Amino acid sequence: MNLIFEGVDTVAKVLLNSVPIGRTGNMFKRYSFDITSVVRDVNSLELRFQSPVLYAAQRSKAHTSYSVPPDCPPPVQRGQCHVNFIRKEQSSFSWDWGPSFPTQGIWKDVRIEAYNICHLNYFMFSPVYDNHTQEWSLEIESSFDVVSSKPVSGQVIVAIPKLQTQQTHSIELQPGERTVELFVKINKNVTVETWWPHGHGNQTGYNMTILFKLDGGLTIKKSAKVYFRTVELIEEPIEGSQGLSFYFKINGLPIFLKGSNWIPADSFQDRVSSDLLRLLLQSAVDANMNTLRVWGGGIYEQEEFYRLCDELGIMVWQDFMFACALYPTDRDFMNSVRAEVAHQVRRLKYHPSIIVWGGNNENEAALMMNWYNIPPRELHTYIKDYVVLYVKNIRKIVLAEDKTRPFIISSPTNGAESIKEGWLSLNPYDNNFGDVHFYDYISDCWNWKVFPKARFVSEYGYQSWPSFSTLEKVSSQEDWSYNSKFSLHRQHHANGNNEMLHQIGFHFKFPESTDPLQTFKDTIYLTQVMQAQCVKTETEFYRRSRSEIVDGQGYTMGALYWQLNDIWQAPSWASLEYGGKWKMLHYFARHFFAPLLPVGFEDQDVFFIYGVSDLRSDCEVKLTVRVHTWSSLEPQCSSETERFVLKAGTAVLLYKESVPVLLKNCGNCTRQSCVVSFYLSTDSQLVSPANYHFLSSLSESVGLHKAHVTAIISQQGDTFAFDLETSAVAPFVWLDVGSIPGRFSDNGFLMTEKTRTVLFYPWKPTSKSELEQCFRVTSLMDVY
């Protein structure tokens, strides 16, 4: 009889009927304790927890041979120290976007398993594709605990009805811990439909049952969903460029990874319901994302998270839970990590959504860029520890347990080049290899030349403040100013609030209201405008770099901005606020991740438009370019190209014109008085979002009037239509319904026409009168 804990957070002594039966010390591990000799008819179970903060400090203090940095987080995070000494959610001791709430308790299911013949500990499977025979098969592994004194024999029947596949195998289980490995060939006369990422095909899965009929009438039945897909990480030489490519092929097709980074959805995991996960993950898909990176400072997510990703077609880059720190490699720590990794790989590997395992977040960079000022003569000790932890243990276990997907040691990493250099590269941020993380809050984000033309950008971003309706729930009147104690307390990134103002100052004037509350709300609005515009410019640069090499750099095949979601109500890099409300950035992501997109940019007074296609097939399109003056709702001039074929999975130059010529051919336009918009269409049907390009900073614009925007709201089934009318051209039109849960079909847009209809999709039942009561509209000139 075993007592099973699926998850204990974190350090506890377990007693059954006052008898100590074991200890826990790893949040990410399953624990099993034999209670056969202790159990009674009526039982009492007790867990005595130790403070994780004190435990981490004790472990650090006991590690006397050398220090393992960092000791403590930066003071601005108001966090706890030595989190790298405890196998617990690393961000629970604080991060630069979250609070220090070092939780403790039973965070997953507890159960008793009793048996007298045998018990199925786990069963897992991997679909395998044979390139040579072009056939699919399933490798199934089942682990049994056989407690009977003699062997147990019987049959195992595996059935996948929709694939007309059923196989029966005879098995004999000897006493003890036994593993049964089965190899099931899929009927080759049936077409297997593969699992595709969102935007590239269907997420077809097949129901499988596995039935064990054993001696003594014992039957064990399991059912699961099986998905078939292959994944390859391609690192190959590129003509005209030093280094290697870094991109993923799914089912043989190169796919540009579009998406973001996932952090824990709450400091307290029991608040994270299936509904909340669905809301956040559906929002990712609704913004045309196909990938989320489960970042290495949080948790291995709950089963429902991966099930939803399978269903929605979200590819998952799955880090192991090591982040922004060096780690000890003493015997107890390593034993714990080995059990954690084996458990998590077995638990998760059957999910098609997981396409790559990552060993850690930024630890190769931390070591090789010497974030912790380690003296050169001591570096070898830490390099040795790094290789022991991530290569000789984690990588070894992952490759033994799962042969179906790639493993990379770190992010950022130089991939194959890092391996060649002894697992650590001198410059892990090399644009010619692997992935990079890129942050620059000082340079002007409208200048695309500051961004790296790298192979894959797995982190980048800018901060903004969440809506006032989100902050209002956790603050009071004295907090409602940009420099209040509250505003400084919730900002955990050093100088973050000033960096946002600095970035706003490049292109926008600051709010001019005499009402302090209105000024705070207007500043929040401008931080969201700035963030959305910055991440748009950067992402569009990465997307248009997918098919070209310029000055030896390019072939960018991934853009995952930091970060998707929030853990509390505070300024952060997120595009979804705590609770799921969409920031302006998330609406922009829906456009800049669209499958078909025109991207405009300038270089030396010449205006270029690229066409970017993530479509599976070539399409015939034409490009329409319009120039508007800020002072008129009628376009100043318009032109369209001949129809042309835009090839699938490419980014190509479609349009090139000198800016002075463009303006000269368009009446009395100047850079300050006009704006360019453009879109791609097929047979006059709009297929891409309308995009735009500002010819000057909006702080220098001429002819922009304060727009009077009105809305008539009507109900249409489960959705609501907002019929908008404006008196003038309005940039960054922001529709807000306060705390009413839901999202608009578009928001934060440039309104160049007198009328426009936007839909509102409520997440909970609401009414026209409730929406009318809460509705506010803001556009740029309203803040001046």
What does this structure look like?
By secondary structure, the protein is α+β, with helices and mostly antiparallel strands. It has five domains: 2-113, Sandwich (Jelly Rolls); 118-227, Immunoglobulin-like (Sandwich), CATH 2.60.40; 231-593, Alpha-Beta Barrel (TIM Barrel); 597-700, Immunoglobulins (Immunoglobulin-like), CATH 2.60.40; 709-782, Immunoglobulin-like. It has 14 helices and 48 strands. It has a six-stranded parallel β-sheet. Strands 35, 36, 37, 39, 40 and 41 form a six-stranded antiparallel β-sheet that branches. A four-stranded antiparallel β-sheet has the order 14-13-16-17, with no helix packed on it. Strand 24 (291-294), helix 3 and strand 25 form a beta-alpha-beta unit. Helix 2 runs parallel beside helix 3 and helix 4 runs parallel beside helix 6 (379-401). The radius of gyration is 28 Å and the shape is globular. The relative contact order is 0.08. The model has no long low-confidence stretch (mean pLDDT 97). It is found in: Lysosome. One of its GO terms (molecular function) is beta-mannosidase activity. Residues 2-108 form the Beta-mannosidase-like galactose-binding domain. Residues 248-411 form the Glycoside hydrolase family 2 catalytic domain. InterPro entries: Beta-gal/glucu_dom_sf, Beta-mannosidase-like_N2, Beta-mannosidase_GH2, Beta-mannosidase_Ig, Galactose-bd-like_sf, GH, Glyco_hydro_2_cat, Ig-like_fold.
